[in-house]
Amino acid sequence: MSGAVSDPDHTELPASLPIFPLTGVLLLPRGKLPLNVFEPRYLNMVRDALASDRMIGMVQPREDDPTTLTGPPPDAVPPDAALGERPPALYPTGCAGRITAFSESDDGRFQITLTGIARFAITGEAPALRGYRRVVPDWEPYRADLADDTAAIDRPRLLTALKAFFKLNDITADWDSIAATPDERLVTSLAMICQFAPSEKQALLEARDLGERSRVMTALVEMAVLGRATAGDTARH
Fold first, then answer.
1. How far is residue 21's CA from residue 40's CA, in Å, rounded to a whole number?
2. What mean pLDDT do residues 47-68 have?
3. Partner of 200 for a Cys bridge, out of 82, 103, 188, 196, CB 3.0 to 4.6 A?
4. Cα gap 17→29, rounded to integer Å
5. What phi, psi does 137 have (nearest 5°)?
6. pLDDT for res 232
């Protein structure tokens, strides 16, 4: 089933937002993220979102600082059974998406697609609802996300780096299709699907615009290629 509700404008973005904290998962404006939802608290979150504005925020937990939380005291957030006590701290920036397609399996799971709407800065944590966390988002720093990003990118350098990266990793690509893909869709798709470290994913998320995101991704790919090549040279000596 697909959603038919149009995307909100800046004044219609919500004052509180349910979040789905997932390490290494990146959502960007106008990107599409498929998710398989099965935990009871996140099933509650999806049902509640479907009954309201269909908005969910994707945020990465900060694994390097498990004792510090964004927002108010620990009674505002539910204990995490997997961690024993307080849930993990969050990176300060996430991206909200609208559920634009969903289906429910016979065993009660949801398969949803989130389409990225806009990034947000976390200014605090709202009281938990039905087991899932909610945050107070500040949309103002990222209001430009609601329009297509037309910043220029160095496409030849990016594609040169990608060809070397794909070759080293035995990845087959349809280069004709890649060549025909618009800049924003290409950079967004690659940033979301490439296997970068969580901190690198966060750097891609927090990049100011498409041009900066493309430069960050190109640098990450070039470093990965250089690292593989250096490791290969070392192994041969």
1. 14
2. 85
3. 196
4. 16
5. -90, 145
6. 57
Beta bridge partners of 181: none
Give 233 or 139, the one with higher predicted confidence. 139
Could you tell me whether strands 17-21 and 55-59 are parallel, antiparallel, or unpaired per DSSP bridges?
parallel
Nearest CA among 197, 234, 209, 198 for reference residue 28 = 209
130: left (phi over 0), alpha (psi -120 to 50) or beta: left
Higher pLDDT, 10 or 144: 144
Tokens of 75: 């009674």
Q: Scanning the structure block, which residue is given the tokens 């398969």? A: 111
Label residue 196 by pLDDT band (50, 70, 90): very high
**How far from chain centre, in Å, is Cα 21?**
10
Q: What is the mean pLDDT of the chain?
A: 87
pLDDT tens digits, residue range 83-108?
A: 345 778 999 999 999 999 999 999 99
Q: What is the DSSP string of the chain?
A: -B--PPPP-GGGS-SSEEEEE-TT----TT-EEEEEE-SHHHHHHHHHHHTTT-EEEEE-EETT-TT--SSS-GGGS---TTTSSSPPEE-SEEEEEEEEEEEE-TTS-EEEEEEEEEEEEEEEEEEEETTEEEEEEE-GGGGGGGS-------HHHHHHHHHHHHHHTT----HHHHHHS-HHHHHHHHHHHS---HHHHHHHHH-SSHHHHHHHHHHHHHHHHHHHHHHHHHHH-
pLDDT at residue 70 above 50?
Answer: no
CB of 223 closer than 8 Å to CB of 216? no
